[in-house]
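tool_call predict_complex ligand=flavin mononucleotide
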Amino acid sequence: MKIIGIHGSPRREGSSAQLMGAILRQCEAGGAQTQTYHLNTLKISGCQACYSCRQEGKEGKCAIKDDMNRILEDILAADAVVLASPVYMWQMTAQAKLFTDRLMPVLKQDYTSRLNGQRLLTVYTQGQPDVTKFATYFQYVKAMYSFLGFRALEPFVAGGLRALDDLKNQPEIMEKARQAAAGLMVE
Ligand SMILES: Cc1cc2nc3c(=O)[nH]c(=O)nc-3n(C[C@H](O)[C@H](O)[C@H](O)COP(=O)(O)O)c2cc1C
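tool_result ok
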């Protein structure tokens, strides 16, 4: 089983990285191979709306040559994806949104998907302690990823996190994250 971790925070050692790391380590313990991408350190341009990925003969291939090409290849060949992002201004980070826009090549001309039902676990961290505060947005985004062809799992949301080491005071969240890994390890 191959699982891809996509990390959307600029803070490499932040809460979302720690939670995603705990989930991926749990999957590795169950025998999965994992590969992590830190979006903030990669060269990923915004989608240029050329629709080349939808032209006959070029289907599924992005015209932009940057780090997103290998991420797309990895996702198409993977069994599951973990996408972790802090909440910035009530939404995913710009890095995570850029990545999401560049998923356009997974859609065929008729809007069916080139994905084969890869499981997708979204992991959100937020300063706001009330984890229901942005739930409407998380569900909306989950529906969008389902439309793209992912088997989108219930989002994992952790609140009350601001400083890099805030998770140390909430060990129960790390434990819940490890438990969430089970949803990805289904054949
Ligand atoms: C630009 C910016 C915008 C933010 N917007 C929100 C927000 O709308 N709601 C919220 O609860 N926290 C917000 N936060 C706080 C982060 O979501 C929070 O600190 C998160 O746990 C950071 O995750 P990380 O450690 O993985 O980077 C914001 C932080 C930044 C830097």
